[in-house]
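Standup notes, structure subgroup. Blocker cleared on the L263DTV3 input:
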Amino acid sequence: MDMKSNHNGPVLTDPPPMTLTKSRLGIHSSLYPPPGVVFSHTLFLSIPRKKPLIVNDVRSSSWLDAMKSSSPTHRKKAKESSTELASTDTDFYHSWMLKYPSALTSFEQITNYGKGKRIALFLDYDGTLSPIVDNPDNAIMSDTMRAAVRNVAKYFPTAIISGRSRDKVYDFVGLTELYYAGSHGMDILGPVRPMSNDHLNCIRSTDKQGKEVNLFQPASKFLPMIEEVFRSLVESTKDIKGANVENNKFCVSVHYRNVDEKYWTTIAQCVQKTLKDYPHLRLTHGRKVLEVRPVLDWDKVIEQQMNFYVGLSNCDDVLPIYVGDDRTDEDAFKVLREGSRGYGILVSSIPKESNAFYSLRDTSEVLEFLKSLVGWKKSSSL
Ligand SMILES: O=P(O)(O)OC[C@H]1O[C@H](O[C@H]2O[C@H](CO)[C@@H](O)[C@H](O)[C@H]2O)[C@H](O)[C@@H](O)[C@@H]1O
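Run returned:
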């Protein structure tokens, strides 16, 4: 595992991603040249390397820079929602949108590509379906958004992908007709299909309603380690006012949104100290959150997720659309972009570099986009 410093600060990375092909995604589109490579059914869980983890010293400015840039501040957010946006900010946003056009104004272009294909929707939860709030337990989804998600799922296979534990995100969304992927895709529950997902090393299980389901947990052996790390981080951060450690089953979130900025280094030091004892875990940055997760080949995890939902048969006609706001969603955007396979849509009210194709400003635009998809589907099937 290498330690790489980029403009976002230090991120512990997995081995360099293998070249992605459409056939590796297992779902092809006639929009792009045919791959000519046969999809392999191998299980992709990579074995963590024994090499000791090298973590950059948290006192280096890159850690703090990454932490500071991980989400707009309250002041910035207030300004963004104001109708009196400074004209320079507006200009900056509009020039950024030339690179990441609005998925609403480009809707016709997206649906033109989607004609004759099955659109599969992947929706992030926090910041995409529910607005970012100070307390993670209060990230409630509006009834209007729930109705829109329920509606869209009638027409397109729809999955909620979250960094949270699967149970927690299910409790927030509460729709049985969806697929749920918790812990950034390390915990997926889905229906049993004919020609099942056996090649993905799924196990049969039953859901809360007692229905038979497929369960995909590529990081199950990390469970005791994550539990241990969770307890250790709760203990080491207990005296930092505002710090909140969330157990997301196969990963742990250390929130610093409510911590005074002068203690951010202390938070980072706690995480760094813990990670030193666990070379098979890595750190990623989210929105005012440090996330500890297993070292896995993330391209493969994402690839498998997509195969899990859409299946491998008749997959040439699938167009995946992934909507998300976070740095962790970038992994999925990258897989879609590099495989020239589908569209990433970044939800952001501030300009930022992304692997997405399109953008939406906030959750209200996500709502509008979902409604538009339903409207388009209804009118096209008349
Ligand atoms: O993949 P996601 O569904 O976007 O999950 C990513 C993290 O989301 C949550 O944290 C974020 O949202 C909170 C509520 O709005 C906010 O308080 C926090 O600052 C954000 O980072 C969740 O609590 C984390 O566990 C997820 O990893």
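Discussed briefly. The first strand starts at residue 2 and ends at 6.
Next: hand off to the docking folks.
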